[in-house]
């Protein structure tokens, strides 16, 4: 994440799994980012995405197809666009349990005694033939002006936000399916309102577990393409990164836009 190499302790991972899960092996399946490329480089997102896809195909998809893996527990730290991409790759191919890394206390173990998150959905009912934005403000507040400065003043802004957002808001596993229900409903409403040819421009500020679940909630055959934005320290603004779904032309357009920034 950024300029820091985030090390994930195997001991901490295994300690977070019981009582519901236990490791099948005393080692983990590791998918790592390409450390030779930095996010300030124009090709960062294209290269990291391809690197992720190749590792996933070799280390996970092949083993799933050979029935070597029956269930996955996911412990992920990465930039949010890549976490959403990972979720889309995981999809619903098998049972998946996604964990959340906390700052205080420093653990991956779910804390079921903590208060539940109050999610709020913000609908849009204006013009249909305009750019579409989906604001996901769970771990931080995203001001609409930041989105409008990127997509234009006539943008349709849909949203899923949390009451009192903050970095350590995601503590209960039971909040994951609630978030996914909100998101699935939002995908359906956006498609019904804006039509089959729209693209959802996603502006995420979400905990890592919800970033993965955002990708898992997206259905490739049913939902509109998602163009994922990320906050750039260099540009001091949201910039486009990768597009999930859609035609090859849309994918190439996203890459071209990244290079312009």
General description of the model:
The model is unreliable at about 1-5 and about 250-260 (pLDDT under 50). The protein has about 260 residues and is of the alpha/beta class. The chain has helices spanning about 10-15, 45-65, 80-90, 145-150, 175-195, 210-215, 250-260, and strands spanning about 70-75, 95-100, 120, 130-135, 155-160, 200-205, 225-230, 235-245. It starts with 9 loop residues before the first helix and ends with a helix. Helix 5 packs across helix 6. The protein is built from 7 helices and 8 strands.
Topology:
Blueprint: H1 10-16, H2 44-65, E1 72-74, H3 80-90, E2 96-98, E3 119-122, E4 132-137, H4 144-151, E5 156-162, H5 175-194, E6 200-205, H6 208-217, E7 226-232, E8 237-244, H7 248-260
Parallel strand pairs: 1-2, 4-5, 4-6, 6-7
Antiparallel strand pairs: 3-5, 7-8
In terms of quaternary structure, the protein is: single chain
**Strand fraction band?**
15-25%
Helical percentage: 25-40%
Q: How are helices and strands ordered from N to C?
A: HHEHEEEHEHEHEEH
Give a short account of the largest sheet. Answer: 6 strands, mixed
**Distance between the terminal alpha carbons, to the nearest Å?**
20 Å
Judged by helices, strands and strand pairing, the structural class is: alpha/beta
Strand order within the widest beta sheet: 3-5-4-6-7-8
| CA-based shape | globular
Name the average pLDDT. 88
Please provide the count of β strands. Answer: 8
Total number of helices: 7
- Overall radius of gyration: 18 Å
pLDDT < 50 stretches: 1-5, 248-261
């Amino acid at each position: 994440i950024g300029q820091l190499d985030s090390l994930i302790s195997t001991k901490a991972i295994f300690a977070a799994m019981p009582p519901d899960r236990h490791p099948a092996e005393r080692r983990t399946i590791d998918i790592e980012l390409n450390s030779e490329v930095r996010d300030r480089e124009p090709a960062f997102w294209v290269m990291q995405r391809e690197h992720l896809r190749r590792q996933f195909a070799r280390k996970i998809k092949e083993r799933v197809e050979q029935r070597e893996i029956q269930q996955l527990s996911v412990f992920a730290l990465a930039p949010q666009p890549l976490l959403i991409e990972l979720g889309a790759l995981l999809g619903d191919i098998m049972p998946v349990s996604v964990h959340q890394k906390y700052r205080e206390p420093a653990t991956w173990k779910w804390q079921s005694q903590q208060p539940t998150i109050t999610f709020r959905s913000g609908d849009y009912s204006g013009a249909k033939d305009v750019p579409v934005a989906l604001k996901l403000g769970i771990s931080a507040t995203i001001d609409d002006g930041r989105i409008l400065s990127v997509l234009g003043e006539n943008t349709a802004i849909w949203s899923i936000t949390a009451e009192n957002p903050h970095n350590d808001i995601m503590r209960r596993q039971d909040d994951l399916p609630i978030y996914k229900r909100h998101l699935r409903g939002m995908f359906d409403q956006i498609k019904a309102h804006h039509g089959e040819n729209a693209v959802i421009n996603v502006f995420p500020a979400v905990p890592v577990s919800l970033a993965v679940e955002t990708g898992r909630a997206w259905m490739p055959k049913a939902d509109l393409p998602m163009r994922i934005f990320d906050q750039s320290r260099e540009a001091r603004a949201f910039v486009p990164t990768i597009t999930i779904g859609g035609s090859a032309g849309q994918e190439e357009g996203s890459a071209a836009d990244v290079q312009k920034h």
